[in-house]
Amino acid sequence: MVARALVPSRPLLFGLFSNMYLAGTIIFGGGPVVIPLLREYIVTEGWVSPRDFLLGLAIVQSFPGPNFNFAVYLGSLAALNAGYPAIAGAIIGYIGIFAPGLILVHGTMGIWKTLRSRPWVKAILRGINAAAVGLIYTAVYRLWEIGYVDVSMSSGTSLGREPWWVVTTATSYTATAWFGLPVPVAILLGGVMGLIWYGVIKA
Fold it and tell me: One GO MF term, please (predicted)?
């Protein structure tokens, strides 16, 4: 991380690793929070286009597994766009995003068993969890503001510009939160509603 700050012109693969490592270090609050960070550290650098970022996000969200796996897609695409092998970027992205958490867990495992029973530690964790919920809502709002992408767009805009996507979002939330619809079914339902929109508007 020191080298990231001191080296003015970093090779892409080194910059990719350091940015992923930084995102993995400062992230707290679960998978959704990492998405805006990855957009900031990858898209802003010019390694991946906003459109490719959003398309990859849609694909990753439709599969099981943590959102951190998105780093593999971004790493491979960033490396490929710069003329490096995609597998190199994928491995670097994977190691960079997961390494901080693994180091933290294994580095504090010995003292955590003692600390977790202390009342003041429990109070700190409750506050951190509450703050993490706020971070998740912030991440969801940011995704809402960039989630609409079309063929003619180079970057995403707000989903609110198209009423049908508001209906799709509300349907997904209502079905899962109130009626217990399984998440995979909700994702498939979203795909079906996308096809309906395409059939009515684009066909």
Answer: chromate transmembrane transporter activity
